[in-house]
Amino acid sequence: MRIRLFHLQNSRSQRIIWFLEELGLNYELTIKDHSGIDKDKNSPHQLSKFPTIEIIEQGKTSILAETSAILDYLSHLHPQLGPNSLLSQQLQNFYYWKNYSEATFIPDLVLKQIFHQIVKRTPFPVRFIPKFLKYGFDQGYLNQSLQRQMSMIDKHLEHHLWFAGDQFTTADILMWFPLLAFSPNYRQFKHIQRYLAQIENRPAFKNALIKGRWSASTFKAYWTTAW
To answer: What's the confidence (pLDDT) of residue 184?
Structure first.
């Protein structure tokens, strides 16, 4: 089986590269940067999604998109980072945090960026209108929600080495991206900071950053302005 990954630089698809590096799998990598988006076909998926993988097996090519779907499928084939060896409470932790990342945490992260982009792209004479709406939404809901979520995560990591427990799993790969985006604005959560530093010491993670052409400064600038 051959795997070809279509990756958008500094995006959530970085997590798929990391997963592949953790397992030591062979794969081909096609990298797109944001300047080239919409100028041509971005990925083989009908909606030009990132990440997308092409799976080439016995002369047939199939296409799969969405980070969670890709991780679930590849984990089925290569279960080393999956739930098979987890005990009862660890198994519950695994499924909760794995799904929480995409269902609750990242949507709030995206809302932060959407409101920021609306303000940024509104003509200056009327920019105060979306800016006022963003302020109201942040103060009335989003900031409070994120504070509660970060407190919950920090409390969990106080008592767990990884999200499932003692074992590194795909739940950690999924949770890394939103935590990294939020963390500069929530430095008071020391257990989250410890957790992120722990990830940065993993050899596969370091290799993935190089292969995915990750830019920490670009990522930080993009997300910190959303606050």
So the answer is: 81
Q: Can you give the pLDDT at residue 118?
A: 96
CA distance 71 to 23: 12
Rounded Cα distance between 36 and 73, Å, is 29
Question: Is the residue at 82 inside a domain?
Answer: no
Burial class (CB in 10 A: 0-12, 13-18, 19+), 105: buried
Phi, psi torsion values for 64, nearest 5 degrees: -140, 135
H helix runs in the chain, sequence order: 14-23, 67-77, 88-100, 106-121, 128-137, 143-158, 170-182, 190-200, 203-211, 216-224
Domain match, 215 and 111 both: yes
103 C-beta neighbours (distance < 10 Å), count: 10
Question: What are the pLDDT digits (tens) for 130-178?
Answer: 999 999 999 999 999 999 999 999 999 999 999 999 999 999 999 999 9
Last residue of some domain: 55, 77, 99?
77
pTM score, two decimals? Answer: 0.94
CB 62 within 8 Å of CB 44:
no
pLDDT at res. 39: 57
CATH of the domain at 63: 3.40.30.10
Q: Which residues of the chain have pLDDT under 50?
A: none
pLDDT at residue 38, as a whole number: 59
Distance CA 215, CA 222 (A): 11
How many other CB atoms sit within 10 Å of the CB of residue 58?
5
